[in-house]
Structure formats: structure tokens, C-alpha cells
Amino acid sequence: MKRLLVKYYKKGDAAFLSHRETMRVLERALRRSGADLVFTSGFHPRVKMSFSPALPLGVAAEAEYLEAAVEGEPDLEEMIKRMNDALPEGMGVTSLQVMPGYMPKLSRWARYGLYRVEGGGGALHLCMRLDGEGGGRLRDALQLLKERLGVEAEAVTRVGIYASRDEILEENPGKVYFYHAGKGELEEMEDSGAG
Asked: Does 104 score more than 80 pLDDT?
């Protein structure tokens, strides 16, 4: 059995699909991909898969992830083509890769979400925890951005999911604000070596 990591996007009207609807749409696309999928056991077998943390309704995404179990040697290029043919407008698979055995499961490394918040003629980046340890609600973070920085969010897109704060700073030069849900504070992130 192999684990595949599927990277996909959601934008436009597809951003208004709930997490459950998104899961159903992607499972259907996986079934149509031609891969030899691994199913759960039980009365109602389902494709063995897991998803990155749920997006709030209406928030677009550039880099969401799905992990699925497959047998054999899947043709990744053909899978991408077939999945994209089965997905609704506004959703698409951008990459597919076989995960090495040492790579932790998606649920173990998807700790931080990075959001691009556009408003007032500019954009800034907002980082939040996704793993339940001090994470908060996006709408609370956006309210704090409005109160503290005067930024009225006109469009919000989750641009990535990361294992550590340092990884975010390495890949995203410029100002990134971290939302401390427990403290109700925003802080400008700096490369400190803390994850």
C-alpha cells in the first residue's frame, strides 16, 4: 500500500462548498481516477483518505491537501487528468505524489495555515494554528485585523498549510502576522527558530 498526497485548489463558487461536500467531490474524483484505491472495511466501505483541516465557508484555497491510500503503481499524470475532468469548476488538482514511508501522515504535519487577506488596496498574510492547540476562528482573527490594523477583509485565501512557523517565513518573505487565539493578540512574525 502506498500513500498519495494530492494537492488541490478551491476558488470562485467552489469556495462555498462545505468541507463535507468537498470530501464527497474529491472522493468521487479519486474513484474516477483509475487508481487501485484502498477501501475501509465494514458495512459501507469508503476510500481510505484524510484531508487537511476544514476551510471556513467562502474562503478560497490555493494549496489544500488530501492523502489517499492506493495499491500498485499509479500513473500520476493520468490520475491528475482524470480527477480534474471529474471536479467541478473552481476546483483542480495541481500535483500528486507518492509519499515516502518516513513522511508523517497529513494530520501530523498540518499545523499552521497561512491566509492572504486582501482589502483596502493591499494584502497581508495571516498565520493561524490549525491543530486545535491554541488555534482559533478565522473570523475572530479577521476582526482583530480590522480593529488593530484597520484592514477590512474583502477576500481571504488560504495559500498554504505548514508544519512549522519557520517554514512559513522561509517560503513567504514579507510581513506575516500570527494570531494568538488564546491571548486575542496579533504579532508580527520573525524568524526565531521556534516552531
From this structure: yes
